[in-house]
């Protein structure tokens, strides 16, 4: 069983969904994740504090998942607690993860993100460009992680890009089986370029 604060909370989700009178009070429940952030930022041992509040799987959950590792790339810039919570939900030790931090992110956010590779040897972190929507900065930041993952000595099978607060809606095992069904093909769109985006582009020499 997970040995951390969040995972050990006894919340009856079925009762909440079905409007059980005794449990409705949980709908008004709030949680101070900012306190977690402050504790992590000021911790002497960030890894220990991160693992205190967020559960990260220690071993593959099945042989099938172990033999079919996935890769994930992120571009992030804020919300330490949200990032750690989301990452902990779909983190698995057999997968490969790469984070590019927006160059304009707060220094405390950068410091916590830079601590992650010390806690988990399958997470890489880099600082990139300013990630303004519709600009080259986003593309460059995405490519930076993708290039790192392609050069990595890690036999991952499929890559997924997640932006900001994106979260997979499938379990790791479900994603493995979906990727197997794709059989090496790519699921993407190709559309005509929106010319008005030129107005938002950064011009560099």
UniProtKB/TrEMBL annotation:
Q: Where in the cell is it found?
A: Membrane
> Topologically, how does it sit relative to the membrane?
Single-pass type II membrane protein
Q: A GO molecular function for this record?
A: acetylglucosaminyltransferase activity
| Signal sequence, renumbered to the chain | none
Please verify whether the record's keywords include Cytoplasm.
Answer: no
The answer to whether UniProt assigns keyword DNA-binding to this entry is: no
Spell out the Pfam families in the cross-references: Branch (PF02485)
Q: Which keywords describe this protein according to UniProt?
A: Glycoprotein, Glycosyltransferase, Membrane, Signal-anchor, Transferase, Transmembrane, Transmembrane helix
Pathway recorded for this protein: Protein modification; protein glycosylation
Q: Which GO terms describe its cellular component?
A: membrane
Q: Which family does it belong to?
A: Belongs to the glycosyltransferase 14 family.
* Protein's name in the database: Core-2/I-Branching enzyme
Q: Which organism is it from?
A: Oesophagostomum dentatum
Organism ancestry: Eukaryota, Metazoa, Ecdysozoa, Nematoda, Chromadorea
């Amino acid at each position: 069983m997970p040995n951390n604060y969040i995972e050990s909370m006894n919340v009856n989700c079925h009762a909440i969904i079905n409007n059980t009178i005794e449990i409705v009070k949980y709908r008004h429940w709030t949680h101070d994740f900012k306190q977690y952030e402050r504790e992590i930022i000021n911790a002497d041992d960030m890894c220990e504090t991160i693992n205190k509040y967020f559960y990260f799987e220690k071993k593959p959950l099945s042989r099938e998942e172990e033999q079919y590792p996935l890769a994930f790339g992120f571009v992030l810039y804020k919300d330490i607690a949200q990032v750690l919570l989301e990452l902990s939900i779909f983190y698995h030790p057999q997968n490969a993860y790469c984070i590019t931090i927006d160059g304009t992110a707060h220094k405390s956010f950068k410091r916590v993100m830079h601590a992650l590779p010390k806690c988990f040897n399958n997470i890489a972190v880099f600082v990139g460009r300013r990630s303004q929507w519709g600009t080259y900065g986003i593309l460059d930041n995405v490519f930076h992680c993708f290039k790192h993952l392609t050069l990595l000595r890690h036999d991952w099978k499929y890559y997924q890009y997640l932006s900001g607060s994106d979260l997979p809606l499938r379990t790791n095992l479900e994603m493995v089986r979906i990727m197997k069904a794709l059989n090496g093909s790519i699921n993407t769109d190709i559309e005509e370029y929106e010319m008005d985006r030129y107005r938002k582009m950064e011009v560099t020499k």
